[in-house]
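Hi everyone, sorry if this is the wrong subforum. Our group has a chain we'd like a structural model of before ordering constructs, and none of us has done structure prediction before. Sequence below.
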Amino acid sequence: MGEGRGDVQAYRRDSAEVYQGRIGSDPVTFTYEASQPREGSVSFRVIGREGNGNIYIEVNGERIFEEPMTSDFTGTGSEFTVPQRVLQQGENNFEIGATRGSLFSPTTYSLENIQAEVNDRNFHDRVETFRMFENEF
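Answer:
Right subforum, don't worry. Here is the predicted structure as tokens:
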């Protein structure tokens, strides 16, 4: 138990699809309650893309990344820095989504290994995650 500064996992999800159509959208959204945030990062791997729109990352309403991305089946994915100026003490809102390429062209990105970390001051017990396979159980 103790208090310290370090990279705190703000979000983790194995896979998701982000979508932007003519009428609706389906972004990945999450919040992180920060005490004294510095910088952070968002990372994911694109495993599929339909349409010609961009993928974007917004933090607290500020778009920190927007570009088209291609599938990455062999790499570890991409990591994007979240600057300290967009993070705030208290609730921070994150959104990963897609933009339409044109009026009649919806866009879908398939993502995996989605993670967000924030360098923050926190009170914690030591917590570590691990995977146990069925044959080990």
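For your construct planning: The chain is about 0% helix and 60% strand. The mean pLDDT is 88.
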